[in-house]
Design goal:
The radius of gyration is 16 Å and the shape is globular. It is of the alpha/beta class. The protein has eight helices and five strands. The protein has a single domain, classed as Rossmann fold.
Length: 201
Amino acid sequence: MARFIVLDGVDGCGKSTQAGLLAAELTRRAGRPALHLREPGSTRAGEAIRALLLSREHDFDAGVESLLFAAARRQMLRELVAPALAEGRDVVCERFHPSTFAYQACGGGLPERDVLELLARWANEPAPDLLILLDLDPEVAARRRGAPLDRIEDKGLAFQRKVALGYRRYAELRRDARTVDASGSVDAVAARIRAVVFDGR
């Protein structure tokens, strides 16, 4: 049975690299191509919303950001995720609800409940089968990432520390979220992720 798996975490934690490796491993094991997505993005509308959100030309507050993220996510779920799962293809997505909770609620100061209710009501079908939160010290992640590349990365290390705490808070609230240590080599982190995905550890 096809699965919808999310990898999430602070900027610079290795989501893109690990999502690509996991998608390749799922493809190898299933014998059919897994779908690798990024969020926001992946659809035409999602990429346009992504460009808007990350552009330094705009100064959105956390509420506007949440609504835009939810809109992009809903489009991706309807246009790409649901059809892929119906075809029996696994889906791996970089970022999902944990990001909006960590960045806009915990980092941006929105009420936790409001953000969770927005996402559950408007951008949650189909829901992920597994949420993997890549846990990495924000200072280590910042060194990996390098210079800020967009408006959200511009918010700095203090903001990223709040975000990291937000991911831990999300893991406390959601029993379906699994935290994985994202420190160490790419291969070491990939092995930890495989243990969760394939062995349930």
